[in-house]
Amino acid sequence: MLKEEEPNRRRLLLKEIAKLFYERGYEKTSIRDISRALGISNAGLYYHFKDKQEMLFAITSELIDEAIDDLRRNLPKIEKPEDQIFWIIYSHIMYYKNNKNETKVLVHERYTLEGEYAKLMREKEKEYVRLLEDTIRKMVGDTATKDKLKVATYSLLGMLNWLVHWYDPEGSLSPEELAKGISNIFLGGVKDVEGSGTKG
Predict the structure, then answer these.
(1) DSSP E strands: which ranges in the chain?
(2) Distance (Å, rounded) from C-alpha 76 to C-alpha 135?
(3) What CATH number does the domain containing 171 carry?
């Protein structure tokens, strides 16, 4: 019975740790701060996690893994690339709404990962970017230059990641309305990428 409860216990701990990392910053949050806030001993904390790096990696990697899995599973079900773009935007907004602290930590603190954790995170981010790029390429065709496709991809990613700085999911602007607005702006701007010719 205990073994079945451990993954749920670890998940709950990670949610509280993500809140601390967002509120105080990763570097300024000590193991003592974490154990005190969670109401457990340092030894109890180390039972679940090797160190702070493992905590940060678990928080960020689980979120991006879930997002990648959702893209792989759902994009093939959507016929039009424009609708795929809308779905990507909407799903990103919903991830933020449902995982505010984790998303903020992913955006702000992933750069503090070191060694193998940093390498693994870079690989996950490259896969996420590749899925976005492939979707945009379907829409603009193969005539777009590599550079313009890169600009379009990272512009979309920048728009989505910046949401953590200003968007309140509980405010007057619903996720659906926001997704439609961002989609219209992006799709209108990305038309410049279409038919731009190959790079000479």
Answers:
(1) none
(2) 10
(3) 1.10.357.10
- pLDDT tens track for 158-193: 999 999 999 998 899 999 999 999 999 998 877 665
Q: Could you report the per-residue pLDDT of 5-59, keeping only the tens digit for each?
A: 566 888 899 999 999 999 999 999 999 999 999 999 988 898 889 999 999 999 9
Q: How many domains does the chain have?
A: 1
Residue 173 lies in a domain: yes
pTM of the model: 0.85
Nearest-CA neighbor of 162 among 131, 137, 186, 134?
186
| HSE-up (13 A, CA, CB side) for residue 154 | 6
Cα–Cα distance, 41 to 168 (Å, whole number): 35
- Could you tell me how far CA 75 lies from the centroid of its own chain? 17
CA-based end-to-end distance of the chain: 64
Show the domain range for 111.
51-193
Residue 74 vs residues 69, 107, 131, 137: alpha-carbon distances, Å: 8, 23, 12, 17
182's CB contacts (< 8 A; 6+ apart) are 89, 159, 160
